[in-house]
Inverse folding.
């Protein structure tokens, strides 16, 4: 695969290589470790996925923004590649079935194999999307500009039913079946339309959707965004047709969603009180509540405070909140106990006879301040422990997998390299980047997008 | 030694002090207790006598050393010597020492004064936490500590105070640097606290007060004026079982919400409540407050909220109310009348500077309040003779009437005061239409001790003659700007009122040295104000200096005839003058004590 298709693409690659050099950093990354070293199957899976002989990318080495030169031959190539890819995934799954019979005890391996399969499936999706996306500029559909979701649907019909997985489109619930093949982990409780007799509509997202950092994706390059508005800003770079006021405007609120019932969310973790199967089920109010709940309660606490090295958090905001106060022992009791809040100290003093508030000495005040100054610089580094990395086959002939750790605190594009993001090149793929950082890489199901869209609109 | 006897008064010749001139032997045979009783009486009659006694003999000196309880040094540097001489002194008043460095307080600890119980540092600066630490170490039994005006004192100082375990009374007024941490230390360290003042402690918040109320259950008096407290600390305060006096003057954080939240926890011990100047309190809050404090004796709502009938009718719940202060309040229609209906038992009513006080309402009120002893209607400018007639006919037992600047009252009306209220002890008729006939009517008030008739331009020497002849107990007379009086009148006062302690003759331009000569016979005189009397000269001042040895406050500003000669006498004889400031020769001279 020839070199990069655009100037800023190349700078990105440079960044990646830089980060790649930091091997120590990478090996400290648990996800990297999981994927790169422990899983032979994963390796097998990825030596095969993009054989150069079948690669469609050679033809599209000179992709530009916007990609206008769509050729039927290239489309054919792409579809061929997709077919072959599906076949490979089938093989892998088959081998998994065999291995699962032989080594029933090694559940960890199975999980990793699932991850590998998911990664492959991601590649498939990416390929599909990019194939479809290459169509977009050539359509010149004015209705698309005024109604982007509808336009997507139209365009998706050209490519085939599977393209309904294109993110950013409003996929109705009837299209659920289309996404089933890609949804590896969504076997249990995936019927998010589970309407309880209560007064609200209950939604349950899957783990992977919850952990996805982005909910809006560029249909052309695949870049992910947290906010719809940011995506619209991004789309301007793909052509003048995205710069019209209509395209940049906030999409009108759906009449159907306005009258929809109040939505509540259920945690996918079975046994959790926030899970709908729990006896004393308490639903979560917003999707943000659910995301934070899931991360806090059921995820590894990967953010460690750089001050005390003991406190760990799974939500970055929690870490930042903690770091504001960590090491800042301001309220001391005569018994030696320290408090970060004055009212806590006074409650303690009120409770215990003979304990009295102790005044901090001057030196400790100074050191506190110094410590606080230091802590302000830490969070940026810590984000690198998010363990985001990419792999691709852009090294071409030798088809050696490059695993590239990404410093997500770097530029915006790089930071998308997290779980669930699709890092596309422009037009037909010359690079495929998936980021299976968190186990199974499920297709993003329709309810998810719908709910996210509603959230964005509200 | 001299500084220890501040209120000294030199004897021109030794008077017959019964035990004093006795030889040592009889004095030895006298028990200390009896001797001290004698000394107490002698000191009460003439503070200067004790010094004479001490100088009589060694034994007298020793006895006097054992007897003295109060030390009030003029200079902090002499404190160690004073403590060494008076080992049994229990009270140390440093209010005359503007600067008390840490080293001085350390000297207290060095001289080991375990008998000290009370220390007043309210007017001193220069000491800090180190000095207080030394004090705490030296006086473990200290019960009374006044650190008011210690704007330089912070939490560290408060933490040292907290080491004085037996402290019962503590004033931290205006210790603005003290925060909850310091107060928390005090609360934990001094569980016996009964009287605490946190006035102007801006660093103290609800948290500290809550802890204080939790730890110091014996608190009786709590002053939280001008602090930043809010409603959060109220439940804790109201749970104090012995709280009797609560002052919340000028607490902007207290509003109706805070007072309404009190309705649940009633405090039956609270007797005195001051919520004057609380701007955010309205009728609603006061009404609910009254419900929660049924045993209130004194209530101060000055400058607080408009007085309406519904507000006052709530006072029926506090049947024991004795004192009601409504200074600077706006009276709504029938608000004052409601007081007459609801608060029949009150003895002291203050309506000064209030608006909306009318003749009809005031007449109605005083006709109902038969027990009224003190009435303050200063600056109630709308009232006329009608009100005064009602007051004097209904409240004949009145002992205090203050009606400064009641301009519509005629001289005829003022005559009624003297005729009907013969129990008066305090009368303020400043800036009124009073004439000599009115003063003549006052001859019936033989108990009069304070008379303020400043800016009464119609009074003359004749009227003062009546006063001088009929008011032997007069201690304080104010004749400010009473232009009609001259030396004769002042002489009559000086001869008739030998107990006179304070006289104000400012801008009585006709008085001369003759007045001062007659006033020099008043031995108890400690305040003399003759500002703007151009005919007074140094010879008059010298007479005062020699005659009134207790003089502590003297205002001779704009007395251009007074020169160095007068100053010399003052410096020689008036040891009690608190501040001695001379601006320029033959120009403005000021001798006035600002420390009162």
């Amino acid at each position: 695969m020839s070199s990069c298709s655009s100037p800023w693409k190349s700078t990105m690659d440079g960044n990646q290589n830089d980060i790649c050099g930091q091997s120590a950093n990478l090996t400290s990354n648990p996800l990297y470790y999981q994927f790169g070293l422990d899983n032979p199957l994963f390796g097998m899976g990825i030596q095969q996925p993009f054989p150069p002989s079948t690669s469609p990318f050679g033809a599209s080495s000179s992709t530009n923004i916007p990609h206008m030169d769509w050729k039927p031959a290239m489309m054919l190539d792409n579809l061929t590649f997709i077919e072959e890819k599906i076949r490979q995934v089938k093989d892998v799954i088959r081998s998994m079935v065999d291995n699962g019979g032989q080594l029933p005890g090694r559940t960890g391996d199975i999980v990793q194999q699932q991850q590998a399969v998911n990664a492959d499936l991601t590649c498939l999706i990416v390929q599909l999307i990019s194939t479809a996306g290459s169509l977009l500029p050539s359509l010149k559909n004015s209705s698309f500009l005024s109604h982007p979701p509808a336009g997507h649907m139209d365009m998706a019909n050209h490519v085939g039913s599977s393209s309904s997985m294109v993110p950013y489109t409003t996929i109705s619930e009837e299209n659920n079946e289309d996404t089933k093949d890609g949804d590896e982990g969504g076997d249990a409780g995936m019927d998010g339309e589970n309407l309880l007799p209560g007064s609200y509509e209950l939604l349950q997202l899957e783990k992977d959707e919850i952990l996805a950092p982005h909910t809006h994706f560029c249909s052309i390059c695949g870049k992910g965004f947290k906010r719809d508005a940011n995506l619209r800003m991004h789309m301007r770079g793909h052509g003048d047709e995205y710069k019209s006021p209509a395209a940049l405007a906030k999409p009108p609120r759906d009449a159907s969603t306005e009258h929809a019932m109040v939505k509540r969310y259920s945690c996918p973790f079975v046994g959790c009180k926030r899970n709908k199967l729990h006896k004393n089920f308490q639903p979560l109010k917003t999707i943000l509540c659910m995301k934070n709940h899931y991360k806090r309660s059921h995820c590894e606490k990967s953010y460690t405070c750089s001050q005390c090295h003991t406190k760990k958090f799974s939500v970055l905001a929690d870490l930042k909140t903690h770091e504001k106060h960590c090491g800042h022992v301001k309220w001391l009791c005569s018994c030696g106990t320290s408090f970060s809040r004055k009212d806590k100290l006074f409650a303690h003093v009120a409770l215990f006879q003979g304990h009295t508030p102790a005044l901090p000495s001057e030196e400790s005040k100074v050191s506190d301040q110094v410590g606080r100054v230091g802590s302000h610089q830490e969070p940026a580094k810590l984000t690198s422990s998010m363990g985001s990395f990419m792999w691709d086959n852009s090294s071409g002939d030798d088809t050696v997998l490059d695993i590239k750790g990404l410093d997500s605190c770097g530029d915006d594009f790089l930071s998308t390299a997290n779980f669930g993001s699709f890092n596309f090149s422009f037009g037909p793929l010359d690079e495929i980047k998936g980021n299976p950082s968190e186990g199974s890489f499920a297709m993003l199901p329709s309810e998810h997008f719908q709910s996210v869209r509603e959230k964005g609109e509200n | 030694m001299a500084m220890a006897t501040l209120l000294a008064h030199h004897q021109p010749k030794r008077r017959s002090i019964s035990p004093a001139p006795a030889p040592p032997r009889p004095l030895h045979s006298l028990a200390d207790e009896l001797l001290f009783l004698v000394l107490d009486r002698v000191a009460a009659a003439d503070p200067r006598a004790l010094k004479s006694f001490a100088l009589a003999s060694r034994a007298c000196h020793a006895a006097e050393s054992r007897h003295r309880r109060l030390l009030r040094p003029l200079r902090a540097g002499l404190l160690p010597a004073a403590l060494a001489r008076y080992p049994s002194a229990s009270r140390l008043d440093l209010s005359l020492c503007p600067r008390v460095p840490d080293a001085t307080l350390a000297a207290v600890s060095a001289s080991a004064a375990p008998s000290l119980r009370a220390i007043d540092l309210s007017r001193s600066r220069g000491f800090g936490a180190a000095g207080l630490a030394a004090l705490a170490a030296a006086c473990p039994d200290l019960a009374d500590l006044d650190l008011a005006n210690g704007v330089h004192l912070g939490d560290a100082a408060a933490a040292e105070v907290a080491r004085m375990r037996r402290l019962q009374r503590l004033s931290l007024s205006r210790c603005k640097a003290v925060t909850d941490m310091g107060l928390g230390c005090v609360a934990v360290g001094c569980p016996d606290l009964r009287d605490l003042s946190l006035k102007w402690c801006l660093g103290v918040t609800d948290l500290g007060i809550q802890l204080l109320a939790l730890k110091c259950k014996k608190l009786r008096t709590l002053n939280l004026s001008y602090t930043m407290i809010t409603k959060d600390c109220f439940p804790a305060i109201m749970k104090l079982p012995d709280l009797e006096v609560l002052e919340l003057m000028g607490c902007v954080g207290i509003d109706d919400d805070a007072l309404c939240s009190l309705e649940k926890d009633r405090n039956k011990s609270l007797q005195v409540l001051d919520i004057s100047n609380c701007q955010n309190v309205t009728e609603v809050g006061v009404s609910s407050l009254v419900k929660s404090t049924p045993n209130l004796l004194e209530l101060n709502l000055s400058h607080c909220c408009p007085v309406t009938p519904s507000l006052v009718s709530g006072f029926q719940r506090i049947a024991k109310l004795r004192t009601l202060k409504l200074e600077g309040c706006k009276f709504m229609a029938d608000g004052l009348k409601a007081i007459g209906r609801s608060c029949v038992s009150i003895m002291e009513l203050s309506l000064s500077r209030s608006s909306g006080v009318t003749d009809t309402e005031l007449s109605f009120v005083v006709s109902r309040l038969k027990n009224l002893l003190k009435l303050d209607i200063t600056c109630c400018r709308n009232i006329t003779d009608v009100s005064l007639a009602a007051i004097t006919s209904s409240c004949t037992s009145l002992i205090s009437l203050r009606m400064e600047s009641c301009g519509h009252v005629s001289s005829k009306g003022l005559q009624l005061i003297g005729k009907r209220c013969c129990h008066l002890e305090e009368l303020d008729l400043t800036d009124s239409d009073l004439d000599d006939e009115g003063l003549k009517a006052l001859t019936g008030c033989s108990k009069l001790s304070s008379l303020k008739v400043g800016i009464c331009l119609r009074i003359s020497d004749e009227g003062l003659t009546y006063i001088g002849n009929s008011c032997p107990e007069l201690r304080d007379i104010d004749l400010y700007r009473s232009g009609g009086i001259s030396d004769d009148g002042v002489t009559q006062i000086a001869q008739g009122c030998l107990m006179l302690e304070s006289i104000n003759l400012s801008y009585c331009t006709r008085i001369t040295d003759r007045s001062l000569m007659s006033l020099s016979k008043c031995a108890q005189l400690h305040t003399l104000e003759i500002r703007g009397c151009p005919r007074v000269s140094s010879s008059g001042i010298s007479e005062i200096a020699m005659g009134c040895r207790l003089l502590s406050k003297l205002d001779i500003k704009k007395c251009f005839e007074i020169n160095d000669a007068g100053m010399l006498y003052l410096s020689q004889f008036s040891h009690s003058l608190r501040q001695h400031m001379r601006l320029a020769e033959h120009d403005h001279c000021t001798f006035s004590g600002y420390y009162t």
Observations:
- Chain B has 24 helices and 22 strands.
- The interface with chain A takes residues 155-156, 159, 162, 180-182, 184-185, 188-189, 207-208, 210-211, 214-215 of chain B (CB under 8 Å).
- The longest helix of chain B spans residues 32-45.
- Chain B has a mean pLDDT of 87.
